[in-house]
Specification:
Blueprint lengths: L8 H8 L10 H17 L10 H22 L5 H30 L7 H9 L3 H7 L18 H22 L6 H19 L4 H6 L1 H4 L1 H15 L9 H21 L5 H24 L1 H6 L3 H8 L1 H18 L7 H24 L1 H4 L4 H31 L10 H31 L3 H11 L2 E5 L1 H5 L1 H7 L4 E4 L5 H13 L6 E5 L12 H12 L4 E5 L9 H14 L3 E4 L2 H6 L13 H21 L1
Parallel strand pairs: 1-2, 1-3, 3-4, 4-5
Length: 618
């Protein structure tokens, strides 16, 4: 514990600090803004493409509150590292454990396949390095395709926990520098901010920039510098009128709104200065709120206090509920997203009530008697259900695969690799057969006839087509199938160009691309799409299989674009896999994208039946 001498300046400040300032008016409104932006991005990514910036505000608030609270304890002589960590553990871990174990328990009954690889991921969450774990697993927060999980959003908690662990050392360093107390935070913060920009200009992978603690911690550090500064100057009022404050709030709102609707997570501008600028805007907004009591009091609305007070629980429940709704097909209903958000709010309330019931039972039993029975019965039922789900959750976590050599989805990966090997074998046998036939050709007429026989059906696809390749080659034996995992539309263009040069590009071309990236708007995908269409030309009949990947940000955008192309081009047709996959989630593996054995048969059958129908009609 740090004890201050009676004649120290800090000891004097301890008595000048208003003890009521522990609750700073207006902070709940900022938490509400942050969780609202994040929620809108998670549920409506096409409309609120930049809602993820709410994470920057959360990081700023984390840094501010840790610094402000630590300094208040320091000047009162009550700060100790042990007490600091105990307080953080009590705040962060009970809701986290409750959400994780309850989620796994519910998934035990509804989505058991998802739990095969959950053990290592949960360990990374609890130990506070989930952001680095997801990077090691090649996860992409914006694609939400690879390694899709109900805990994808926990990368943010990894950065939070890592900063919580780092903060006591930073705080002691700041206090030793006395009048220059904020310099270490500002210096390290600007190093982190410039590192983000420098690495982005070098072409570093976006996921590394977005998940990395070293490239994101500047928001916490700037908030921490503001928290220390405010703790020492909390009695100073920098604003002379509320009118000035309103202008500053308006100024800060404009770029936030612009970024929310326009700044996509794949945009280089976000990392080459955009995120740093928005973080400074959030710092200015926070300073405006905390240093103008009248504004803070205006923001002390009941709804803001409730959402802000439950923001942590709301955040924790978001992906588990969203993942479940998407995998079960409920999200596609008219009011699916609204219902999912309602469920999240209910769960956030219930989880807090159950934890209060366990940790602070006297708060539950201190109500009037007539309300006591209803509350006890209700809480008892919720607690009992939660206990059962937590029991199943603990059982499934302990039974999950902890083999360090097995990455998430390794069973599916092994199966796709086997299918890829089988497809390559089929291609090799076909090439050998065609070479033997070519050796027998004697005349130009025979050569032309052979080309016409070979110019039948060509299929170009990604891992979804790889998974169904055995069924496709059985139902459409004359087709030449070239499918490869992780292929996007740019890879499709290169493949089509190569096949065209080898005279293997048939008069009928079936394309299955769009799972691993968008088909328009973003480069290099938009250029790749146009180049692919140019190679295919207007003479060939193009059959493009619609995309189904419930975790992909661009699924709806790609399918809408394909529908528009089918209307604009006479030779462009859509094979509509999307509605079938959406209405039959049992045809898919736990990743919600790749068809299982039954799904592969239906996928191949859809291709076969569509081609037969179209060709017969012509």
């Amino acid at each position: 514990m740090l004890n201050l001498p009676k004649n120290s300046a800090q000891y004097t400040v301890a008595y000048s600090l208003n003890p009521n300032r522990k609750h700073i008016a207006g902070l709940d409104a900022l938490r509400t803004l942050a969780i609202t932006l994040i929620t809108l991005f998670h549920f409506f990514p096409d409309t609120f493409a930049g809602g993820y910036i709410g994470v920057c505000l959360f990081l700023v608030l984390t840094g501010f509150l840790l610094a402000y609270g630590s300094y208040c304890d320091y000047v009162a002589g009550t700060f100790s590292v042990g007490r600091y960590f105990l307080k953080r553990l009590k705040r962060l871990y009970p809701p986290l454990l409750f959400v994780i174990l309850t989620t796994v328990g519910v998934y035990h009954f509804l989505l058991p396949d998802v739990l095969e690889d959950c053990g290592k991921e949960i360990v990374s969450i609890l130990l506070g390095f989930n952001n680095w774990w997801q990077l090691a697993m090649n996860a992409d927060y914006f694609a939400r395709v690879v390694n899709a999980s109900p805990f994808t959003h926990m990368w943010f908690l990894g950065i939070e926990l890592e900063y919580v662990m780092l903060w006591p050392m930073l705080f002691v360093l700041c206090m030793r520098l006395k009048s220059r107390y904020v310099w270490p935070l500002l210096f390290i913060g600007w190093v982190s901010a410039f590192m983000l920009e420098y690495m982005s200009l070098l072409g570093t992978d976006i996921s590394r920039l977005y998940y990395g603690t070293d490239t994101r911690v500047f928001a916490c550090l700037f908030g921490g510098a503001l928290g220390l500064w405010y703790a020492k100057h909390s009695d100073d009022n920098l604003y002379s009128s509320l009118l000035t404050t309103r202008y500053e709030i308006l100024f800060s709102t404009i770029p936030i709104l612009g970024a929310t609707f326009l700044l996509h997570g794949q945009d280089l501008l976000l990392y080459a200065g955009g995120m740093q600028f928005l973080t400074l805007i959030f710092c200015m907004m926070l300073l405006t709120v905390i240093d103008e009591p009248r504004l803070g009091n205006h923001l002390e609305k009941t709804v803001f206090r409730w959402i802000g007070g439950h923001s942590y629980e709301i955040f924790l429940w978001q992906y588990p509920v969203l993942f479940l709704f998407q995998r079960q097909g409920w999200y596609e209903f008219v009011y699916g997203p609204v219902l999912a958000i309602f469920v999240i709010l209910v769960l956030a309330t219930c989880s807090q009530v159950v934890l209060d019931f366990i940790c602070k039972p006297r708060l539950i039993f201190s109500r009037e008697e007539w309300r006591l029975c209803l509350k006890c019965y209700g809480i008892g039922l919720i607690a009992a259900f939660s206990a059962v789900m937590i029991g199943f959750g603990m059982q499934d976590v302990l039974a999950s695969d902890f083999n360090p050599d097995h990455k998430p989805g390794y069973k599916l990966k092994l199966e796709l690799e086997q299918k890829q090997a089988e497809l390559e074998k089929v291609q090799a046998e076909r090439a050998k057969r065609e070479a033997e036939e070519a050796a027998k050709i004697k005349t130009e007429q025979e050569r032309i006839a052979a080309r016409r026989r070979g110019a039948g059906v060509t299929m170009i696809g990604d891992s979804v087509m790889v998974g169904a390749s055995s069924a496709i080659t059985r139902l459409v034996p004359e087709a030449y199938v070239d499918a490869l995992a992780c292929r996007d539309v740019c890879g499709g263009f290169e493949t089509a160009q190569k096949l065209a040069a080898e005279n293997k590009l048939g008069n009928i071309v079936v394309i299955a691309l769009g799972t691993n990236g968008p088909l328009l708007k973003y480069e290099p995908y938009a250029s790749g799409m146009q180049n692919l269409l140019n190679v295919l030309g207007t003479e060939r009949q193009i059959y493009w299989i619609s995309v189904y990947c419930s975790y992909s940000q661009w699924m709806q955008m790609n399918n809408q674009y394909l529908a528009e192309l089918s209307k604009a081009r006479a030779n462009f047709h859509v094979i509509d896999w999307y509605p079938l996959a959406r209405s039959h989630p049992d045809w898919l593996y736990s990743d919600g994208t790749h068809p299982n054995l039954t799904g592969a048969e239906q996928y191949a059958k859809l291709i076969h039946d569509t081609l037969v129908k179209k060709i017969s009609a012509q």
